[in-house]
Specification:
369 residues; alpha+beta; 2 domains; five-stranded antiparallel beta sheet; two-stranded antiparallel sheet; 17 helices; 9 strands; 46% helix
Length: 369
């Protein structure tokens, strides 16, 4: 199958992280913006937003294209490759059993339903009946394999799974896994808490706190939330009745969430693809979404994308039959409408740049004007 928009999106659509929706937000999206579900749309956006993009492209054959590679940008769900890497190491070393049957209720202790139904879609995929809201499992005692939860973190971008894994493994394990890929001091926070800061802003810390203090604040809120039935009800009532703030406020919130550089994200994907550490488990999860839609000569495409208001991101690797490995990351942030977030595919321009030299040249031209 030739490398094309259709071959990339056929299964990536299921893996793409969903986004936050505010009431009447669709009406707030300006018309006539570049279509970020197409390569041409990305070229148009990039040519006018060069200072809002971090990009790394290493094609594995000696060609490189980088743009602001060491500038930190929000990651959105692309950050989930870090707990996945730690999970992979723990399974390989025998510290976690992928077949362990875990309570769905323990998984859902970290769930804030601001994910565009990612968790609900996970429950449906796993055949787990839901409660009347359609958001949570009807029976918290229902059991699933630990590996199914890890898979949902990538396939559906479930946002409760990363916090569950961090609590099981410890923050140090996630840092060590990222460091094995050359990513020092990853921005590891509670995703549960970050979503709570948006849904219940009265619980958010003061603006502009350093990330380390915001992280500690978030961990404390996560612990409270996971054990406080009243707080969980308050959160759900707010989301069901009041919804989220306007899209512009969501964009401001998203700008303060977990961040990294394109170099760091690309480096970890390259390490997973090349077995720089015990990464076979992680690689299998990252490559599964596109396993049936590979270009000729390609053994596997591993990717994890992310989207939040105003943010589209992706980290990727390409393993080829000739033994070469390509890797890259694209971090776009700012002046991205709700409609663009909903339709946008940041993996598309990245994969084209890794696999098609002529398209990489066009991308380089868009970056230089």
């Amino acid at each position: 199958m030739p490398l094309s928009r259709r071959s990339l999106l056929a299964t990536a659509a299921a893996a793409a992280p969903l986004f936050l929706i505010a009431p009447n937000a669709i009406a707030q999206s300006p018309p006539s913006r570049p279509d970020l579900s197409t390569p041409e749309g990305w070229l148009d956006w990039i040519s006018t937003h060069r200072e809002q993009l971090g990009l790394v492209v290493h094609d594995g054959r000696g060609h490189r294209l980088v743009h602001r590679p060491d500038n930190a940008e929000p990651l959105a769900s692309a950050v989930k490759v870090v707990p996945l890497a730690a999970y992979s190491i723990a399974v390989t070393e025998g510290r976690l059993d992928p077949d362990e049957q875990i309570r769905v209720g323990d998984w859902e202790r970290f769930y804030v339903p601001t994910d565009g139904f990612a968790h609900a879609n996970t429950l449906k995929y796993l055949g787990i009946p839901t409660d009347p809201t359609g958001l949570f499992a009807a029976d918290p005692e229902h059991r699933v394999a630990l590996d199914d939860m890890a898979s949902a973190m990538i396939m559906f971008s479930d946002s409760a799974a990363p916090d569950y894994l961090r609590n099981r493994l410890g923050e140090a394990a996630l840092r060590q896994a990222a460091a094995a890929g050359g990513w020092s001091r990853p921005d590891i926070r509670s995703m549960c808490a970050e979503y709570l800061f948006l849904a219940l802003p009265e619980l958010a810390p003061p603006a502009q706190l350093p990330p380390a203090i915001r992280r500690a604040f978030g961990y404390a809120l996560e612990r409270r939330f996971s054990n406080d039935v009243d707080l969980r009800k308050r959160m759900l009532d707010q989301l069901m009745q009041g919804g989220l703030p306007p899209y512009e406020q969501q964009c401001e919130w998203g700008s303060e969430t977990m961040s990294a550089t394109a170099s760091q994200l690309a480096g970890l994907h390259h390490a997973i693809a090349t077995d720089a550490f015990p990464a076979a488990v992680a690689r299998s999860h990252l490559e599964r979404p596109l396993s049936g839609h590979l270009p000729p000569g390609v053994l596997g495409v591993g990717l994890k994308g992310g989207s939040l208001p105003g943010i589209l991101t992706c980290g990727m690797s390409v393993r080829r039959q000739d033994g070469t490995v390509a890797s890259g990351a694209l971090l776009a942030h700012g002046d991205i409408t709700l409609e663009q977030v909903g339709k946008g595919d940041p993996g598309l321009p990245l994969l084209l740049a890794l696999e098609q030299p002529e398209w990489r040249d066009r991308l380089a031209q868009a970056l230089t004007g």
